[in-house]
Amino acid sequence: MTHMAYTTPFPPTVGFDLDMTLIDSRPGIHACYLALSERTGTYIDADLAITRLGPPLAEELINWFPEEQLAETADLYRSMYPTIAIAATPAMPGAREAIAAVRAAGGRAIVVTAKYEPNAKLHLEHLGIHPDEVVGDLWAEQKAEALREHGAGIYVGDHIGDVRGARKADALSVAVATGPCSTQELSAAGADVVLGDLTEFPGWLADYRPARA
0.85 exceeded by the pTM? Predict the structure, then answer.
């Protein structure tokens, strides 16, 4: 569904989430959690952890480490991440085409993610995906800060936290059911549009554009 009250300008600025929206980060994160477990001697169920990607790293680590160790452990994880996770992580189907569709419409594409910003940029560089801006370390409603700053009228993400961020920013929420949240959960959270994956985004944007021109 689309709430027609939105008046997204064209050419648009479109924000995209990163993990499970533009990239399939499960293989890399899985490998990094296993390496972190070996390094620290603390058990981590990596299979379980990658089923709930989206929230900040600390929200997962608290399941395995005492609170007083979280900051140090997060720093260790992030330091290990580039050599373990970047090469193991592919682009999601349709990711490059989605960015290209925004550019073809004369718009700007930005990435707004909860991921540690330097590692987010490494992923995109490795995959040859070049958005106009990358903003990291923002989750859920916090994402509205960057979306507003860059004038994003549309935000695309896979998690109900992304829906909340879009709505906080008064941006159209376009959800893709490629992460941990089902189409029903995304709709119930208030997504304006729910797509199966990013391969559907260029067609949706082409149809949506005349209504906002």
Answer: yes
